[in-house]
Each structure stands twice: as C-alpha cells, then as structure tokens.
Amino acid sequence: MIKQIRAKSILRKHKKIDSWFLTHYGINLYRGCSHNCAYCDGRSEKYQVQGEYGEDIAIKVNAVELLAKELDPRKKRKPMPQSFMMLGGGVCDAYQPVETDYQLARKTLELFLKFKYPVHILTKSTLVQRDIDLLQAINKISKVIVSFSFSSADENISNLFEPGVPSPGARLDTIKKLKKTGINCGMFLMPVIPFITDSEEIIKQTLDQGKQAGIDFVIFGTMTLKPGIQKQYFMNVLRKNYPKLITPYQKIYALHSPWGEPNISYRRHINQIFNKVAHKLKIPKRIPPWLYEDVISKDEKIIVILDHLDYLIKLTGQKSPYGYASYSLSKINQSISHTSPEKLLKLNGIGPFTLKIIEEIIETGTSQYYLNLL
C-alpha cells in the first residue's frame, strides 16, 4: 500500500563526517522499500517503519519543498560542512519503483545541481540511469559517486533474497553505462550472506565482475540480524530455502547483540577472505582520496583517512588506535591544521606515528601508509 505523508524535515545531520559515504547528511525521501530484500535491517523495530515492510511505502510528498529550504545557503547562518550529500541507504532506496511516478530523487538532484552540492547515491536500482543527464551536469561543477549494493553477482541467489531488485547483471550493466558517461561508481558488497555468498569463490566472482564493469572501489560488510522482526523474517526465508543452515546461523548469531552482528571469529575469517581477494584484484577497499580531494576540507580528510586506516588495519585482524584518534579530532573546537603537535599528542589515540600521518595529510592531502593499505 502506498500512502502520502508530510515530513517535518528531510536532512539528517551526523555528529561527525561519515567515512563510509563521505557525508554529513542523510536523506530519506520515502519510508519503506518495495525491494523487499530478505536481510534488510530497515525491518528492525529500531527504525519505526510503519506497516508491512516491503509492501507499504510512505511518500514524503513535501520532501522537495523542505529540501529547497534546508539546502539553500542563503538561509544558513553559517555554511554547511563540505561533503557529499547522501541519497539512499537508511530505510529506503531512493530509486525504488515508486520513484518512477513521484520523481522525488530526480527533483532532489535538480536541487543539488542548483546549489552546487556533490552527491553520493547508494542504490540497488537501475532506474538511476534515467537521471544520467542531471548526474553529468552535477559532476561537471562538483562531484558524483553512484554506488550499487550487492550481496553477490549470482542471479539465482539474488532472486531468493532480493525479490524486488533488478538482477546483479542489470546493476553491473548500469555501472558500465554510468562509467562511460564519466560518473564514478562503487560497489557496496554488503551484506555477504553467511555460508551462501561469503565463500572466496563467490566473493572473487563478484569483485571480478565489478572490476570489469569499472568500479572505482568496493565497501564490504557482513550481515547483521537485529533481534526481533528483521531476524525472524530472514530466518523464515532461510528455513524455507536453506534449512540445513539454521544451526550454523544460530551459532554465529548467538551474541543477541542489539546491532545483530555475527561473532568475532566469523567476522575475522570473512574479512580476511575479502581483504585477500580485493588486494589481489587491486580494488580500493574504501573510497579513494582522488574521489574526495576537492569535496571535503583538509581537517575532514584527516578524520576520514584515520577512520579508513582503522578499518584497513582491523581488516587484517590487528588492533588499531586510529578510530580513537579520528573521534578525538572530530571533537576539538579548532582547526586540526592549527593545533600544535603538543596538544595533538595529548588526545586519545594519537601517538608519534599517528602524529606523523596527520602532518603528512596536512602537507600533501593524503598518507602514503594509507595508500599502501588501501
């Protein structure tokens, strides 16, 4: 069922820049998603999406009107922080089927073009190619990234777990089309589905096809199953199609964490497989600096690169201080570039080696240590 609602606001501001998407802001134009992916954590009670998830969609009919006010720099006391505007993710896909009629995503892109904001889109839908004209126009004056979500490139598995989504092949073809027009594209290989799409063979097959399509980077993640409706729904789909996997799932999801993550030994094992394959194929494992060098400030680059380093180190199974360092720097009330080394060394997570990395980023805009791991 489709219903129309009026929202109070559209932009959701993050406490610090999100290093996954390189954004300070999230935008949900709809609530609910008819892609109906079996693993979607939008079903979780945490997000308070009303109705039957996957079938009931709420259209924020005043979204564009609100965004026109929220994005207008003339209505701001101080400029919005520099970063990509994130379209997609959250509890909906901005390019799900209802977008064909309502065109909220297209109208939002028109606002981004008008106000010269860079945009990062995350979608599973090939409908995004409808807006290539706007994406090219935005890309000429700022920057555009279009990322596509995959659990694998296997068509049969996708049919089972992503019933309302264009096939992996169709998504890969759309990446090729976008790349030919000069649009940067990423792959979000998340979630990999335990014991179904997480083998080295399937991960390699998926990344291989992504690389052939022209992806500029890949973001990887394991599947979370939050206790409650989300976990119950997925387990019912699993029981119907892979009944022998019920017991293995009960073992790796025995933590009953509110975040729904699998146990640490499973995560380490899968992360090592992904790291090995991505390294062999020479695909960056986070958004590379050349895609954001003119989009975010120097201080934000430091925070993002330290966050990325934290992920890249932990991907190998090692401990890292860089996440603490990134968080500490996000809380200081002055420019990192203008903060003395003595003060920086007093912050949580920052030692002599981390300080050298910070100073290198200030001087060059990046870090060789980071680039080597990426």
Brief description of this entry?
This protein is of the alpha/beta class. It has two domains: 290 residues, pyruvate-formate lyase- activating enzyme; 76 residues, Orthogonal Bundle (DNA polymerase, domain 1). The chain contains 15 helices and ten strands.
Q: What do you see in this structure?
A:
The chain has two domains: 2-291, pyruvate-formate lyase- activating enzyme (Alpha-Beta Horseshoe), CATH 3.80.30; 298-373, DNA polymerase beta, N-terminal domain-like (DNA polymerase, domain 1). The protein is 43% helix and 15% strand. The chain is built from 15 helices and ten strands. The chain has helices at 63-71, 99-102, 104-115, 132-141, 155-161, 168-180, 200-213, 229-241, 246-252, 264-281, 298-315, 322-331, 341-345, 352-364, 368-373; strands at 2-5, 11-18, 23-27, 30-31, 57-60, 84-88, 119-123, 144-150, 184-192, 217-222. The strands form two sheets. It has a seven-stranded mixed sheet. Strand 9, helix 7 and strand 10 form a beta-alpha-beta unit. Helix 3 (104-115) runs parallel beside helix 4. The model has no long low-confidence stretch (mean pLDDT 93).
